[in-house]
């Protein structure tokens, strides 16, 4: 049993408040001319054709993901919708680029907008009773290792991607890129400044504590003061389901921690692996478990909040610093994608008219290469 304060404590958690603020800022960014310029860049690259255009298209999508952040539904729907409208070009058939560029919408090349995952890392470490001063820039580099692993596989996979007609995306998907609302130049500048302020607040959080989260809230206030968004727009920009699930799961994680379950699992796993277990193997195994179950259950946040505390407890029992494990496992929650059973993979497979064998030929190697790169990055950047 747990008390009311613990059960509902997640709703006053500073990390959850910060994540909601970031969602509002991302909603404002979608009103800028970035969308129009992004679409023009994609079409120009596709018309050129060839291997260089293929790589540049993927890089452009990854750069766009840097702005929207990992896991942005609006962004991957936008990207896949635009890719589905590319004219057929023998030099670069849409079916050849749609799958890698579609998945690129989940891999930021310059991961400065990692507030969502960073906030969860801080939350799970705190729930496990671990005091860790996680540097946002270092965490972003761990994210970058995953993206570089993905990009490397895309380059290798160029020759195995199929050449066949694709299905057109739904009108709703295409509409994501049509007639994008554009702010005035002055309002766009203010929007970008607000975004930068929010990111700076996150960077400073490891130094100034909760005041860093307050800076993010200030950035949202700027949007309201300059009438860049109405309150109702902001409300729709914040995913209520995500906030409720995240806040609720924090209470569950705290309750599980109080029962001693995570410590029990940690001790059991530590005994099974032995005292000389390689930290790389430990993190990789937990990343596989987290990503697979997140894919099968459709609950990324819930799965992360179950496995991250267990991995942290295992590290503590082995006398290892759990920061690398927490960082990699949280990021791995968004790394399934080898089964077409949720939003992005299902949309890519359907829009691209891919056979399951064509889909797996790309996604299964992608899955393992990304997790290996992620684990290497985590262990190198946060020594255990």
Question: Key terms for this structure?
Answer:
mainly alpha, about 375 residues, 19 helices
How many individual β-strands?
Answer: 0
**The biggest beta sheet, please?**
none
Helix content: over 70%
Report the sheet-strand fraction.
Answer: under 5%
- Unreliable stretches: 169-179
**What is the general shape?**
globular
Count helical runs: 19
Count of discrete domains: 1
Mean of residue pLDDT values: 76
Oligomeric form of this entry? Answer: single chain
- N-to-C span: 34 Å
H/E series? HHHHHHHHHHHHHHHHHHH
Radius of gyration: 21 Å
Q: Structural class of the helix and strand makeup?
A: mainly alpha
Describe this protein's structure.
By secondary structure, this protein is mostly helical. It has one domain. Helix content is 72%, strand content 0%. It has helices at 4-7, 14-29, 34-48, 50-68, 73-83, 94-104, 115-127, 136-157, 171-175, 185-208, 211-225, 231-237, 240-259, 261-273, 279-297, 300-317, 323-332, 343-351, 356-381. Helix 4 packs antiparallel against helix 8, helix 7 packs across helix 16 and helix 15 runs antiparallel to helix 16. Residues 169-179 have low confidence and may be disordered.
């Amino acid at each position: 049993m747990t008390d009311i304060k613990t059960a509902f404590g997640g709703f006053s958690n500073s990390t959850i408040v910060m994540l909601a603020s970031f969602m509002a800022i991302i909603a404002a960014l979608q009103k800028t001319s970035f969308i129009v310029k992004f679409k023009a860049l994609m079409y120009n690259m596709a018309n050129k054709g060839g291997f260089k255009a293929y790589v540049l298209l993927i890089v452009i999508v990854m750069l766009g993901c840097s702005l929207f952040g990992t896991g942005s539904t609006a962004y991957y729907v936008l990207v896949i919708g635009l890719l589905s409208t590319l004219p057929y070009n023998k030099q670069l058939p849409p079916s050849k680029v749609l799958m890698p560029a579609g998945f690129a919408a989940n891999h930021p090349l310059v991961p400065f907008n990692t507030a969502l995952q960073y906030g969860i890392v801080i939350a799970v470490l705190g729930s496990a009773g671990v005091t860790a001063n996680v540097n946002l820039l270092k965490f972003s580099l761990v994210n970058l290792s995953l993206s570089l692993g993905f990009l490397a596989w895309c380059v290798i996979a160029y020759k195995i991607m199929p050449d066949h007609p694709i299905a057109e995306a739904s009108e709703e998907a295409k509409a994501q890129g049509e007639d994008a609302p554009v702010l005035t130049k002055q309002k766009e500048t203010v929007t970008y400044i607000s975004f930068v302020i929010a990111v700076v607040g996150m960077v400073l959080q490891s130094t100034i504590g909760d005041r860093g989260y307050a800076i993010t809230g200030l950035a949202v206030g700027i949007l309201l003061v300059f009438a860049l968004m109405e309150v109702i727009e902001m409300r729709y920009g914040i995913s209520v389901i995500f906030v409720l699930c995240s806040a609720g799961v924090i209470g569950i994680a705290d309750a599980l921690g109080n029962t001693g379950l995570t410590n029990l699992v940690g001790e059991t796993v530590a005994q099974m692996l032995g005292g000389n277990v390689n930290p790389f193997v430990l993190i990789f195994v937990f990343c596989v478990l987290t990503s697979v179950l997140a894919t099968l259950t459709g609950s990324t946040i819930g799965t992360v909040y179950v496995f991250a505390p267990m991995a942290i407890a295992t590290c503590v029992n082995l006398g290892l610093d759990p920061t690398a494990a927490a960082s990699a496992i949280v990021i791995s929650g968004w790394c399934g994608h080898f089964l077409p059973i949720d939003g992005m993979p299902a949309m890519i497979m359907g829009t691209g008219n891919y056979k399951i064998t064509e889909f797996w030929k790309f996604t299964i190697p992608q899955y393992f290469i990304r997790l290996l790169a992620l684990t290497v990055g985590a262990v190198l950047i946060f020594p255990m």
